[in-house]
Write a structure and sequence with these properties.
This protein is an alpha/beta fold and 990 residues long. It has 16 helices and 58 strands. Among the domains are: 97 residues, Leucine-rich repeat, LRR (right-handed beta-alpha superhelix) (Alpha-Beta Horseshoe), CATH 3.80.10.10; 136 residues, Leucine-rich repeat, LRR (right-handed beta-alpha superhelix) (Alpha-Beta Horseshoe), CATH 3.80.10; 159 residues, Leucine-rich repeat, LRR (right-handed beta-alpha superhelix) (Alpha-Beta Horseshoe); 72 residues, Phosphorylase Kinase, domain 1 (2-Layer Sandwich), CATH 3.30.200.20; 202 residues, Orthogonal Bundle (Transferase(Phosphotransferase), domain 1), CATH 1.10.510. Helix content is 19%, strand content 20%. The protein has a 22-stranded mixed β-sheet. It comes from Malus baccata (Siberian crab apple).
């Protein structure tokens, strides 16, 4: 009754003193506090429907609320995983009998209200798995707290070291938050009742304090994913109750203290990814309760304790990337329900362990990169549970028993780089889950088996064996196949035209066999094909003109007996080398621009052309029919390509922990990239930092080469990622930087590119080899200019719709080992609309000194803006100057500066970079200068197209017909001397 009278007053107060905070009035019932709590929460699943004003005004029937039977007061609120968001209201402080507040696994945001300290009876506070922020208020007044779990939130500020005062605690979880970096507080050791401690990923550095080992009740100790360093103290033997210890991903060093072997209750053990070394104490073999044992990525050496062979509960073990040696315990797996084992990349030797699958449950068997020798034991014939089998890079030999090949659940079989012999049994046809079959570099022989049933097969690597006979036409049934490597075998017969039905192929290598017949035209149907190597065979006939439709980035047809014309686009992609050793091949007059190739010039024979045309017509009809049939398939494949594929972490049994790292693999050369390879971007590997992100050099493990990884700045990252991904995913050209993969994971996005050993053009231009001697001579500069021009021309003219780069500059032109130019950084590039008018862009992209003048007054961007920027790059190449320098004058740039030096030849010669200009190339340089001046013409319509640019540049070639030394060839000088006309043109253009 009293309440009814009071209510109007409350409302009045609210009106007078907003915001309304009933708590301050101190007169509300618990029901009202709960309603206030509900008001601050968002409840999309309406689980709080029962939270409403009722006649009896009791909250005890509210869903998830528990009351004391006698006093009727609220003692518990438990709402686990109910999709609640919003914030926890300070009204919670009203509930002074509350013993349990458990709201785990929701989406609750905001701060933890300090009013919670008024709930002096609180025993359980579980808010794990929310999105709460800010500092955790000091809760040390809650002396009755037994369970405090605030892990997996976004709490920040200093680690709450006052938790050491909560001596009643038995469970403490603060891991997976965003605390400031700091040390583990000494006071933690007071928590002698603690059985469960989760401090993973809490930004701890320094050593583990001795006091931690005083928590003798501990059963679970998780300090993983910190930066803890130093040695592990032998005092750890005091934690006798420990059954789970997680110290992975720290910087811990030293040997494993022998005391650890006394912790016989241990079931789960993870010390992986630290810097531990030395021998594993052999007493570790007495930890008979072990279920999971992980030590991978450390520096352990010596023998692996034999006692592990007697274990009865071991399910998973992963010790890869250490230096263990000697025999592997003979009985390993004999008595345990082993499901996964990864002992890869150690130095184990002797016979291959035979009991790993003794109990029939082995799914992952990874033992690659050791020195195991002898045969694979027969016992594995019964091991049908295998999903992943990798014993590659050992010295295993002998035949593989026929039944072994049929593994119904296997997604990967990898026997590569051993000395196996014999045939692949036809029973492999039962391994229908197979995704990768890798047998390369062994002594396998016989015919290739029928693989038509393996409809999930994506990678087939059989190279470097002694396979003979024909490539079965059934290969066309492998609709998922993306990589086919059959090189270096003794295969005969023709390249089956059915190969063209493998519509997802990216990478085909059939080199160094004895294949005969024509190159099947059906290959042109494989729209995703990127790399084609048919070299060193006996192929005959013409190169199908239709191959140019593919967006190949590499082609090699050398060492065959092909004849006829080399399509000029293919010549651009592969260079002369790709066609060497085919006596009958010829090239068109106009494609003879790059080097003095040994190839013949084609003589046009009209008759022959007629025949060809007829054939083409016929083929077109067939192709059309095929296209109709496959259009659907292609569409599907294109879609999949765009979505990319998930690449799992090959080696790691821990894979589950990183499942969320999804990979989008651009359709380029099959480059195996582990998520792990690029997770760990270290500052010492930083090679550059630009407007869109930081770039790191990463050496892939196992000698898979080097890549560049760009980590996009947070914020705009996703947008730029999508832009770059969208564009680079679609285009391929030898002068465009290749994108291998990209990944968006949580807040950070990364792109994986081919690595460019020589950095960017700007750097190279301003680098000296010896003092005074420039890294790039004129011939190299010219070649780079032409390469870059080809790349940009491809964007403008061969991509439909055209792509405008919008940020062409010397720092965005990268150089590979051979100084081949690659246009990079598509972060701001745009797809031009089909309309010729150009398109409006709200944001101005580009870099000062390179931006076309019209962009100052119009937002219309078209290809000519790139042409302008490219002209500036040419000016840099010719003059060796930077686009903006102080001595050009206030607000002036290189274009202006050059324009003031075109009055006569003498003035022009003065601005040529004297580091590279000498008599022989002076005229060539002036020709390029002329192109540059045209490109930087003020009026966009007067600028040449990139196609014109290439033509003009080609005429200024200093490298052809010249043997690299600097002596002038009189004839050439005469040929290339610009006429007075040309010089006057220069003046006009400016
Ligand atoms: C939290 O919110 C996100 C979207 O904001 C949603 O995807 C997720 O499922 C939510 N989680 C829970 C536990 O409700
Ligand atoms: C907190 O709640 C989650 C979800 O129910 C549970 O898994 C976890 O064990 C709880 N924390 C503690 C310390 O009991």
């Amino acid at each position: 009754m009293a309440l009814y009278l009071l209510l109007p007053t409350v409302f009045l107060l609210c009106l007078l003193f907003p915001p309304c905070m009933p708590l301050t009035v101190g007169t509300e019932t618990e029901a009202e506090a709960l309603l206030e709590l509900k008001r601050q929460l968002k409840d999309p699943l309406n689980v709080l429907d029962s939270w409403k004003e009722t006649a009896d005004r009791s909250p005890c029937n509210f869903f998830g609320v528990a009351c004391d039977r006698i006093s009727g007061k609220v003692i518990g609120i438990s709402l686990d995983n109910k999709s609640l968001s919003g914030e926890i209201s300070p009204a919670i402080g009203v509930l002074d009998s509350l013993a349990t507040l458990s709201l785990p696994c929701n989406n609750i945001t905001g701060k933890l209200p300090a009013q919670l300290t008024r709930c002096a009876n609180l025993k359980t506070l579980n808010l794990t798995g929310n999105k709460m922020v800010g500092a955790i208020p000091d809760l040390s007044a809650l002396g009755k707290l037994e369970i405090l779990d605030l892990s997996t939130n976004s709490f920040s500020a200093a680690f709450p070291s006052w938790v050491g005062n909560l001596t009643a605690l038995n469970s403490l979880g603060l891991g997976e938050n965003e605390f400031d970096e700091g040390e583990i507080p000494e006071g933690l050791g007071n928590l002698t009742n603690l059985t469960w401690l989760h401090l993973g990923n809490s930004q701890f550095r320094g050593e583990i304090p001795e006091s931690v080992y005083k928590m003798k009740a501990l059963e679970t100790l998780d300090m993983s994913k910190n930066k803890l360093s130093g040695k592990l103290s032998n005092s750890i033997f005091q934690l006798q109750k420990l059954n789970k210890i997680e110290l992975f991903q720290n910087n811990l060093t030293g040997e494993i203290p022998p005391g650890l072997a006394n912790l016989t209750l241990l079931r789960e053990f993870d010390f992986s990814s630290n810097k531990f070394h030395g021998k594993l104490p052999s007493e570790m073999g007495n930890l008979k309760n072990l279920v999971v044992f992980q030590l991978f990525r450390n520096n352990f050496s010596g023998e692996f304790p034999a006692g592990f062979g007697d274990m009865k509960h071991l399910v998973a073990i992963s010790i890869y990337e250490n230096r263990f040696s000697g025999d592997f315990p003979t009985n390993f797996g004999r008595f345990s329900p082993l499901e996964s084992i990864d002992i890869s990349e150690n130095q184990f030797s002797g016979g291959f362990p035979r009991f790993l699958c003794e109990n029939g449950g082995l799914q992952f068997l990874l033992a690659l990169g050791n020195n195991f020798s002898g045969e694979l034991p027969d016992s594995y014939v019964r091991c049908k549970s295998l999903e992943r089998l990798r014993v590659n890079q050992n010295r295993l030999s002998g035949k593989i028993p026929a039944e072994f090949w049929s593994l119904p659940y296997a997604t990967m079989i990898d026997f590569s780089d051993n000395d196996f012999s014999g045939e692949i049994s036809p029973s492999i046809g039962f391994s229908t889950s197979l995704n990768q079959l890798k047998l390369e570099n062994n002594g396998f022989s016989g015919y290739l088996p029928q693989l038509g049933n393996l409809s999930n097969l994506e990678r087939l690597y059989l190279s470097g064996n002694k396979f003979s006979g024909e490539i079965p036409s059934e290969i066309g049934a492998l609709k998922q196949l993306s990589s086919l490597h059959l090189e270096h075998n003794s295969l005969t017969g023709s390249v089956p035209s059915e190969l063209g039905y493998c519509v997802k192929l990216v990478d085909v290598n059939l080199a160094s066999n004895s294949l005969t017949g024509n190159i099947p035209r059906t290959l042109s149907l494989i729209s995703s094909l990127n790399s084609l190597n048919l070299s060193q065979n006996n192929l005959t006939g013409l190169i199908p003109e239709t191959l140019v439709k593919l967006k190949l980035s590499s082609i090699d047809l050398s060492g065959n007996q092909l004849s006829g014309r080399v399509p000029s686009d293919l010549l651009t992609i592969g260079g002369d080398k790709a066609f060497d050793g085919n006596k009958g091949l010829c090239i068109d007059q106009y494609s003879r621009t790059r080097t003095n190739s040994g190839m013949n010039m084609c003589t046009e024979k009209p008759n022959q052309k007629k025949v060809l045309e007829n054939k083409l017509v016929l083929f077109s009809i067939i192709a059309l029919a095929l296209v109709a049939v496959f259009a659907g398939l292609l569409l599907v494949s294109h879609k999949n390509f765009k979505l990319g594929e998930a690449v799992d972490r090959e080696n790691n049994l821990e894979a589950g922990k990183e499942k969320d790292l999804k990979w989008k693999l651009a359709s380029f050369h099959q480059l195996e990239i582990d998520a792990d390879d690029i997770c760990d971007l270290k500052e010492e590997n930083l090679i550059g930092s630009g407007s869109t992100g930081k770039v790191y050099r990463i050496d892939l493990k196992k000698g898979r080469g080097t890549v560049a990884v760009k980590q996009l700045w947070k914020g705009d990252g996703m947008k730029l990622l999508t832009a770059e991904m969208d564009i680079l995913g679609k285009i391929r050209h030898r002068n465009i930087l290749k994108l291998y993969a990209c990944s968006a994971n949580g807040g950070s996005s990364v792109l994986v590119f081919e690595y460019m050993a020589n950095g960017n053009l700007f750097q190279a231009l301003h680098r000296d080899i010896k003092s005074g001697e420039p890294e790039l001579d004129w011939c190299q500069r010219y070649t780079i200019a032409l390469g870059a021009a080809r790349g940009i021309a491809y964007l403008h003219h061969d991509c439909s719709p055209a792509i405008i780069h919008r940020d062409i500059k010397s720092t965005n032109i990268l150089l590979d080992d051979d100084y081949e130019a690659k246009v990079a950084d598509f972060g701001v590039a745009k797809i031009a609309e089909s309309s010729q008018k150009g398109c409006d862009y709200s944001s101005l992209a580009g870099t000062h000194g390179y931006i076309a003048p019209e962009l100052a007054y119009t937002a219309k961007v078209n290809e000519k803006c790139d042409v302008y920027s490219f002209g500036v790059v040419l000016l840099e190449l010719v003059t060796g100057r930077r686009p903006v320098e102080e001595d050009y004058g206030e607000g002036k740039d290189i274009v202006y500066w050059v324009s003031t030096h075109l009055s006569d030849r003498e003035a022009v010669v003065k601005i040529l970079d004297d580091k590279v200009a000498h008599e022989c190339v002076e005229d060539d340089m002036i020709k390029v200068l002329k192109v540059a001046v045209l490109c930087t013409t003020k009026l966009p319509s007067l600028r040449p197209t990139m196609r014109d640019v290439i033509k003009m540049l080609t005429a200024a070639d200093p490298c052809t017909f010249r043997s690299g030394n600097n002596t002038c060839n009189d004839e050439n000088v005469k040929d290339f001397s610009p006429s007075t006309d040309e010089l006057s043109l220069l003046a006009v253009a400016s």
